[in-house]
Write a structure and sequence with these properties.
Layout: H1 2-11, E1 15-18, H2 24-33, E2 38-41, H3 45-53, E3 57-58, H4 62-66, E4 71-74, H5 79-86, H6 92-95, E5 101-104, H7 110-121, E6 126-129, E7 132-133, H8 135-141, E8 144-149, H9 152-163, E9 166-173, H10 177-205, H11 210-218, H12 225-236, H13 245-262, H14 267-281, H15 292-299
Parallel strand pairs: 1-2, 1-4, 2-3, 4-5, 5-6, 8-9
Antiparallel strand pairs: 7-8
């Protein structure tokens, strides 16, 4: 049995994984469970230890992680970090082998993805932008929604790998398209959380049983994945981060900037972007984005 498993593993592409945070750690572990060989690199030793414990290999540098990989997957917080790991003498582009496929699953600006694809092509490397939605729970359960930008042939190559990480996987168009759809996703999620937060405060101040109210609301047109995933956060005021306000602030900057560039008005999105920004200035940046509830409570005269 083990010989069969070993031979199956050897015919699959070898994977380098850069960035083992809240999302990256469980995602890389799901690839290991699916039978892929994964070599990881990240800045925190405890995250490398976790990957090793799950059966992965660990590297001491980006160069070491990517040098023999067929596929390089990156999952880091924002555009500056993607540029830091991709470019320069110690970066992915200089050290990956020719023909390797880079799948960047970070949420960054569409332009950063377009620029990366162009720079990689000059080195004989292929790139997909493949940001995800579903948060920590979606990463753990391997049910992420993955929006992809790039060439159809590269998407076809990547699809079996992505199917070990998510459930809804769609090629949205050329390079940068995945990031554009992710920006729209973050707009919808933020506005949805804000609406839920306002409803929670309204319901509580009205003396209604919140658990009962959220249950019945979630069964009708007001129901949503956001409400399903975040209901307990609201009920218990539990804001342990699955997706931090700091990161949603970054994403709201991406979507408002990109919308301005294409001439699309985001009147409600702009207001929610300001509310997210205000939470950061009040010290709540490290909390889950369901902590938008705290902003509504403050505006409604409650101590938080």
């Amino acid at each position: 049995m083990s010989n069969l498993a070993d031979s199956s593993r050897s015919t699959r592409p070898t994977i380098a994984w850069i960035g083992l945070g809240i999302m990256g750690s469980p995602m890389s572990e799901n690839l290991l469970k699916a039978g892929y060989s994964v070599t990881g690199f990240t800045l925190e030793q405890d995250k490398l230890d976790r990957l090793a414990a799950a059966g992965g290999a660990v590297a001491s540098s980006i160069a070491e992680a990517v040098k023999d990989a067929d596929v390089v997957i990156t999952m880091v917080p924002a555009s500056p970090q993607v540029e830091a790991i991709a470019y320069g003498p110690d970066g992915i582009l200089e050290n990956a082998r020719s023909g390797a496929l880079i799948i960047d699953m970070s949420s960054i600006t569409p332009q950063t993805s377009v620029d990366l694809a162009k720079a990689a092509a000059e080195k004989g490397l292929r790139v997909l932008d493949a940001p995800v939605s579903g948060g920590e729970a979606g990463a753990i359960e391997a049910v992420l929604s993955i929006m992809v930008g790039g060439e159809q042939s590269d998407f076809d190559t990547a699809l079996p790998i992505l199917e070990a990480l998510g459930k809804t996987i769609v090629l949205c168009g050329p390079h940068g398209s995945g990031q554009t759809v992710k920006a729209a996703n973050q707009l919808i999620v933020a506005v949805n959380i804000q609406a839920c937060a306002e409803a929670v405060v309204f319901l509580e101040k009205s003396g209604v049983n919140l658990q009962a109210a959220l249950d019945v609301l979630n069964g009708g047109l007001a129901g949503s994945t956001v409400l399903t995933r975040k209901k307990d956060n609201f009920l218990n005021r539990d804001f342990k981060p699955g997706f931090r306000i700091d990161l949603h602030h970054k994403d709201m900057g991406i979507v408002t900037d990109a919308a301005r560039n294409v001439g699309a008005a985001l009147p409600v999105g702009a207001v929610v972007a300001q509310l997210v920004a205000s939470l950061r200035t009040q010290g709540d940046g490290g909390l889950d984005h369901s902590a938008l509830l705290r902003a509504v409570e403050r505006l409604s005269g409650q101590q938080v």
